[in-house]
C-alpha cells in the first residue's frame, strides 16, 4: 500500500539556491524603540518634573484639608513617571529601584515638611482635651487620638493630637501644644521629635537627586538614547 504524501514536507531546493532566513521574532521585554529626541524629552519630564510635582503636591498636603486629593494626585504622577521610565528603558534593573524611590518620595515629604513648619512657626498654646478615640492597627496595638481646643474656649484649626499624653483618661485635662498661628499645619505635642522628623526634608532632596540620576542613567543606556543623528 502506497504511503500517503505528507503535505507539510518541504520540497528540496534547486542546486545553488539558499533557503531565505526566517524572520527574527522580537523577544518580549525589549526596549521600546523611541527616537533620540523623544528619549531626551521623556527623561527630562520623568527625571526633573515628576519629583518636583510629587514634592509640591505633598507640600500642599501638609494641610489636612488637602491631604487626600493631593496624595492621590501625587500617586498618579508617580505612576505616570514609572510608565515614562519604562518607555525609556523597559529592561534591566531600573524599574524596581524607581518604584522603591517613588514609595519613599510619597511617604517622607508630608510629615517632614509639617515638622519644619511647626518647628519654625509653632507657638506654645495651652489647650484642653475635649475627646479621645482609640483604634487598633494590624498588630493589635492601641493608639489614641484626642480632640483639643484652646484653653480660652476658642477653636483650634485641625484640633487633634496623638501620642504620649493622649488616652481615655485625658478628657478635661490641660496640656500645651505647638500650634501654627496660620492654622495650616496641625498642632504637635511637645513630646514630638520635630528635629528628627524635619530631617526628612534633606532625605527628600536626596531621593529627588537619586531619582533624576536613575532616570538619566537609564536614558543614556537606552539604545536610542545613545545614538546620535
UniProtKB/TrEMBL annotation:
What are the record keywords, sorted? Membrane, Transmembrane, Transmembrane helix
Q: Does the keyword Membrane apply?
A: yes
Residue ranges with Basic residues bias: 1-11, 19-28
Region feature (Disordered) = 1-29
Residue ranges annotated as transmembrane are: 42-60, 66-87, 94-113, 199-219
What is this protein's record name? Integral membrane protein
